[in-house]
Write a structure and sequence with these properties.
- By secondary structure, the protein is mainly alpha-helical.
- About 20% of the residues are buried.
- Helices cover about 40% and strands about 10% of the residues.
- The chain has 3 helices and 2 strands.
- The longest helix is centred in the N-terminal third of the chain and has 17 residues.
- It starts with 16 loop residues before the first helix and ends in a 6-residue tail after the last strand.
- The N terminus is likely disordered.
Length: about 100
């Protein structure tokens, strides 16, 4: 049986695929709107970006079901240019274009 079982994040928290994708995509949108996610992922590790992510995660009710460390892991691989969205749940990846569900 593969690990983690379907529906579980690496940290063992239950998070449906759609919820995981929504958390990653909303976090990316938040950072992009603040100008903290751009041409390189190093900005993602700035104090300002980390503070914004922590505040977003604490205030966003659904996001609490997805560990912030998993959201950051996904954001680290986001392509620098163009419009992208996360798809495929925890083991997914970045897909060019907008997500079907914002």
């Amino acid at each position: 049986m593969p690990w983690p079982p379907a529906g579980l994040t690496r940290a063992g928290v239950t998070a449906p695929v759609a919820l995981f994708e929504l958390a990653v995509n909303r976090a990316a949108t938040t950072l992009l709107g603040l100008g903290l996610l751009g041409s390189d992922a190093s900005g993602l590790h700035s104090r300002q970006a980390q503070a914004a992510l922590q505040e977003w995660h604490a205030r966003t009710r659904f996001a609490r079901r997805v560990p912030l460390s998993e959201v950051v892991r996904c954001l680290e691989g986001r392509p620098a240019h163009g419009e992208w969205h996360w798809a495929g749940g925890q083991e997914g990846g970045w897909v060019r274009g907008r997500a079907a569900f914002p």
